[in-house]
Amino acid sequence: MFAERTGYIIWVSDVKAARNLEKYGTLHYVSRKMHYAVMYVNAERAEEVMKNVRRLSYVRKIERSYRNEIKTEYTSNGPDKSRNYSM
């Protein structure tokens, strides 16, 4: 149904030029203060796209996002302590 996507945090030296990253994938967020951009790319093309992005003059560093690997389903195996704090 949906293609598997991989997130990347791209540290840039020029925030205006970071808007050009849209042609490589889905640009999710650009921080003007901290000079980084969050971008999502299809997982099967991620390596070749990041190779092209690394060549850009305004890109300083690229980090892969580990958001897909973090467990987002939580369980409460411990006892419910809310009864102890009733009024």
From TrEMBL:
It comes from the Bacteria. InterPro entries: DUF2129. This is DUF2129 domain-containing protein. Pfam families: DUF2129. It comes from Paenibacillus odorifer. Keywords: Cytoplasm.
